[in-house]
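Changelog-adjacent note: as of this version, every example in the card shows the full chain rather than a window. The one below runs 125 residues end to end.
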Amino acid sequence: MKPPKPSPGLIRWSGPTTLACVTQAATEARQMFPNLRVELIQANHQNKRDVGVNTAREWFDRREVDAIVDVNNSAVGLAVSSVAREKNKTFLASGASTAALTGAQCSLNMAQWTYDSYMHSRSTS
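Full-length structure tokens:
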């Protein structure tokens, strides 16, 4: 399977490197579980909430996407988390670092496995 082409953008926190790693992980998962259906798609939210929300809605509603991974902007991440909760889908947050994702706006549909702003403020003070 060829990885999707990275979308253009001024900010590339994840971009091609993330795509390469996710492609490798999907390939390895398919080898372990041959019946597992995995399709990788990618979009550029341009650091805009409305673009991220519209993309999430389109993917969940029209493309039958089950999970969105690695939204690298906190405002977009909060918005995508809300859509995932509404659609009962999964959002795996990595680059969105707001503590609100695991605090005030925590959801059973979202997991944040990297740093957040609360951890940064506590560990550096």
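Structural remarks: Strands lie at 67-69, 90-93, 110-112.
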